Amino acid sequence: MRTLGNIIWHIPFMGFVTAFATFVVGALFVVTIIGAPIGLGLLQHAKFLITPFSSAMISRDELKADQNALWKAYGLLISILYFPFGLILTIVSIVQIVGLFVSIVGIPVAIVLAKSLSTYFNPVNKICVPQGVADEVALRRAQEQASRFMR
To answer: Is-above-0.90 flag for pTM?
Structure first.
């Protein structure tokens, strides 16, 4: 089903155009060097948009990956400055989601885009991972929450 979903995303709905546009915007941010944290997040989102049914966007904090504290602080500062651009990209994505909901075939694609809406709004420290990894991270987070309630 995931492969079929990816094919439907690309053939009638031209998902590769959305992925390419996100890639170009991300590359422009990386070229400025100042916007590198945003650009790297958008490049990861473009990678997600190539196979949206087989991958997921999660935060690096959820993976518990070690990061440079200075890079995290710089990313936070840049994400505050990115707010107007993120708002525009989010609005464009919402318009695309509404357009996809018009047809019955587009509803699954719209749901996937809606799940990744937060990445457009704040792409700093987001990473594209296979769906299995995202499921395992969610399972471990749920187990941690359950263990807190069972004490």
So the answer is: no
